[in-house]
Write a structure and sequence with these properties.
The longest helix is centred in the first third of the chain and has 16 residues, at about 70-85. Strands 2-1-3-4-5-11 form a six-stranded parallel sheet, with helices on both faces. Strands 7-6-8-9 form a four-stranded parallel sheet, sandwiched between helices. It has a two-stranded antiparallel ribbon with strand order 10-12. It is an alpha/beta fold. The mean pLDDT is about 90. It is built from twelve helices and twelve strands. The chain has three domains: about 1-45, lambda repressor-like DNA-binding domains (434 Repressor (Amino-terminal Domain), Orthogonal Bundle); about 55-155 and about 285-310, Rossmann fold (3-Layer(aba) Sandwich); about 160-285, Response regulator (Rossmann fold, 3-Layer(aba) Sandwich). It starts with a helix and ends in a 12-residue tail after the last strand. Strand 1, helix 5 and strand 2 form a beta-alpha-beta unit. Helix 5 packs across helix 12, helix 6 (about 100-110) packs parallel to helix 7 and helix 8 (about 160-170) runs parallel beside helix 9 (about 185-200). The protein has helices at about 1-10, 10-20, 25-40, 45-55, 70-85, 100-110, 125-135, 160-170, 185-200, 215-225, 240-250, 285-300, and strands spanning about 60-65, 90-95, 115-120, 140, 150-155, 175-180, 210, 235, 260-265, 280-285, 310, 315. The protein is elongated, with a radius of gyration of 25 Å.
Amino acid sequence: MAEVAAAAGVSQQTVSRVLNSNPSVSAKTRQKVREAIAALEYRPNLAARALVTGNTHIIGVLVSSTSLEGPSGSLLAIEQTARKDGYWVSMASLQSNTAEEAVDVISHFINQGVDGIIAVAQTAVSVDATLKAVGTMPTVLVTSGSVPEDCFSVDVDQADGTRQLMTILRGLGHTRIAHVSGPALDLHAAARLAEWRASLPDGADEIVVEGDWSSGSVYRAAMTMLATGANPTAIFAGNDRMALGVLRALNERGLRVPTDMSVVGFDDILGTDCAIPPLTTISQNHSALGSAAMDLMLEAMDGRPARSVKIPGQLIVRASTGVPAQPK
């Protein structure tokens, strides 16, 4: 740093201010320092800086799963937003989704000296384990689960997205709407299931089968449901992957979409606009989610009061929805 200061004709304190993006340095001086840094190929010692400032500018991000579009999209958005804010991300994914694994990951983050932790928590177990393990560490939960009032949290509004899908189906005249849910322990699946139930017409039959978020599991479940004579006029699949399994099952049963059956999904994954027919679904704004998570993290690090944020999903209407078929 002394060599950079001498080359730029400034003090070491000014070099430090430039490195820490202090706004008090003029643009002309900042440019001179940056040119000296480039010429000398200077790289600051981040470990030494952390010892002095007490900050690593690293955020630990815990993800329940990276194989699904929702959590992986959230992770990417958080990482990109964090870098814009001058932070780097240290990421770990849970393989077994046990409390012990979550605590072990959080302990590693704390020992690593991260400035804060963002947990993308898909299950109540991971939510509870995170809250117990973080101590006084600034923490943000990305979850649909219940959190204490003193906890920062953000998520796509699962209930509102489900409500939008059910509103369009009800508006088309559907009253027998089946639901293919995600795994029972998944908080997103539970939120969508609860709102589906709340949005059914009074006295309507609850036609529901459980999948594991995959197309294959729901293809088999849908074939079984259709064989039992449940006779819904529309199917709300808990995510787009499962909706693709439903479309295959309906095709093999000789049912046309949407002439004989309407189908909707959730997530708006790549390719749903090219499904046969293109799928009506809810698009999740992962960019807004990542931005909100980092905004909340900065607030948590500043010691500001906790709050929760819900990001609205966008209804994408395509050709998989139509009026119910008339009884023959």
